[in-house]
Amino acid sequence: MSVLFVVVPAALLLVLVAVIAFVWASRSGQFDDLTTPAVRSLHDDSEPEVRPPGKRHRRVPGGPPRAP
Amino acid sequence: MSVTEAPARRGKAPRGPAWAAGPLPAPAATPTPGARQETPEAGAANREPLCLHCGLPVPAAARAEDETPFCCSGCATAYAVILECGLGRYYRLAERRGAAVVPQGRSYEEFDHPAFHGLYVHHRGELAETELYLEGIHCSSCVWLIERAPLSLPGVAGIELDWTRGRVRIAWDDAQTRLSRIAGFLGLLGYRAHPFRGGKADARRRAEDRAMIARIGVAAAIAVNVMLAAFALYCGWFGGMEPVYREYFRWVSLLLVTPALLFPGQVFFRGAWAALRTRTLHMDLPIAIALAAGYARGVVNTITGRGPIYLDGVAMLIFLLLLGRALQLRAQRAATDSAELLYSLSPSTARVVEPEDRVRERPAEALLPGMVLEVRVGDTVAADGVAARGESEVDTSLLTGETRLRAVGPGDPVFAGSVNRGSTLYVRVEQTGEASRLGRILAQVEAGARRRAPLVRVADRMAGAFVAVVLMLAAVTAWWWLGRDPSAALDRAIALLIVTCPCALALATPLAVTVAIGRAARAGILVKGGDALERLARPGRLILDKTGTVTEGRVSLAAWCGSEQVKPLVLALERHSGHPIAHGFTEAWPALAVPPAGDLAYTMGGGLEGRVAGQRVVVGSPAFVKARLAATEDPAVEGRPGALTPVWVAVDGRLEARAWFGDPVRADAAAALGALARRGWQLSLLSGDDPAVVRDVARRIRLPDRRCRGAASPEDKLRAIEAARGPGATVMVGDGVNDAAAIARADVGIGVSGGAEACLAVADVFLARPGLTPLVELVTGAERTLRVIRRNIAWSLVYNLAGAALAMTGVINPLIAAVLMPASSLTVVLASWSARTFETRAGSGTTLGPPR
Fold it and tell me: Which of B530, B504, B514 is nearest to B793 (CA)?
């Protein structure tokens, strides 16, 4: 049972690390917005680019510069 | 003005016509998103192509055989921009916004003005940073698009969207690009940017939120771990335990609880201290005493190694109380959210005519009295002033609620917030910003929203009585037992304080309200403040705005008296005009084939004339048409009630048809209001519109004449709300900025679907589904919620009384009290969760985004 003298402090140390991480996360704003990040990850960027059918498009004034 | 070049525009914020005749080559008047509800063209044309960008049907006028289908030029531009960025995948996202992009001719030039930068832009190293409020964010694909597309502009370093708040944070390199370009780019995609004007209050609130979350996290971690240690001790009670381990676990508990008391528990001590200093009784006071006494007792017993410690109870108490408080705060939060948003929505830019007739866009903050503004058709006037040049008609419905346009000539006053509908107008500025009428209304709105806060404090005062009783009982118990069994006196008092802990009582209301609000949101009713539900549960006075609330808030054809052959001729003229009447015509007959028209002329305040299929057609007000009739004609026909706007049609000098326009009453209005009246609500109608029109509408929803009032200015509405007295709450239902002050001042303010954002921002409840049926559901749901709250309070009171009696007589010790305490909270939680409040209807889910 004397292992408790080692295990309990070790467990508490782990808890301390977790608590510090949590406080850091909340202070740095990780919990400010809980909806957008959830939505953000829904759309995966790795899919290949698909161009829908359509005519050739004119340049739009104010639009982005053409990719080099 | 030449009607063919009507610039792209949209009307009174969200419900106006998205009137786009913009840069499309064909003279096309494009139907609105709302036109989707109209029956599409009959027969073969039924299979209309859908717009590639927004998915709405493409109107015949904008259709061309060999081209990709777009419903309007705005969508075509957005489509091109998106492909240009290499973001074509947008069109494969499952959830996409179904709203046509309204093209805008805005340059956002004012975003680059030094005054703007001074106010809203921060510099961080080489990068400039600002926050903008974006209109029109509907769904998750908006997040995708907004966070990617602008990155293709050179110099944009980062862009991050907060979807629920509609706020976007942009970082960019000022040397490479300008903010106006980024804002203009977002505009092309259909998201209108406004400066976000609530920076400071928002930062403070965010810091508060973060601290609260951190406190709850720490308290939870400690509570759970102390519980583990306590478990070991309890096991030791029954199964026996070596003293050295018992001492060990007691010291571990003490070590753990100390930081819980010092960091998360601190708020209670601070609250109690503040209450003591101001000599008021606050919930925090007995909590602080119980915590301090429990902790002190634990410390003493740990050091002396005798008697039980209740440190697990202390840690649990801290955690549960913090959690209850966070729930409560979240329910109240949205109600106080509003004021900052308001300022983001008032007009932020104006075209100033400088010497040498150069016109420049400037931020509204930089306007000074004496400047001359150019107000184009469809623009919102940015400051109060006097018309200097030009003749036009303005839509003041934002300010007054009046649906008819007001004619304005040189010398007439023009108010900020009204929309120019006729032709370009030049306005000499007299009052700007907060001094303008709109500014004063918004200030009243804000004051009204703030004035509600004291009601929250009433709850605290009630808690004060509870606290006083508990403290007294604890003192009596301690004194009583001190005389008989001194060693048990402190235990009894602590047990009493713990068992009567107002946990369940504090949770009873916020929990029931939070659950109800969540259910209501799924039914399309967005409730911001919990107190609104409590007040709606008892019948009171319900004051309704007319335009846009009881009626649909648009001009539509009410009656037509004339032959079928005249209709295409009328449409041929009207489809070239941006006037609300013209919109009413095109909406009424969407399926007619229209001959081309030529030789068009528009007379301000009169009507349109032109040549269609070789015939001279005149459409307009009776006086206007009468003046153009052949001399032999003398029609002395009026016929219809004065509540409707008459329009005459003459062909080749003969009066051929008459039409009447009005604002149709919502289909479900009479039934819904009847249901409310049967429940004991006292209904009345309060409108800024013409009294005759108001009476007409009142008759149709079966309200007696004495219950309706017309020609009420926003200030009158506010006074009417303040004057309303009697049992129950005063509830204001409205949709416009002209109602906003009244909505904010009323006990409960309700904004209806399609209303102006300023009004939605201050309303306690926003009905996201059109019509008035949700209003009945809201009242029913509120009644049920109140019943749940009462049941919860009864539960926790019974529990507390029984617990107090047991603790005072010494039947339970502090340990059992600490175990019983969360049990009462659990009862309340389960009761709240299982209660039926709002009916959730399948398939009617609303996206919980910012109100449109």
Answer: B504
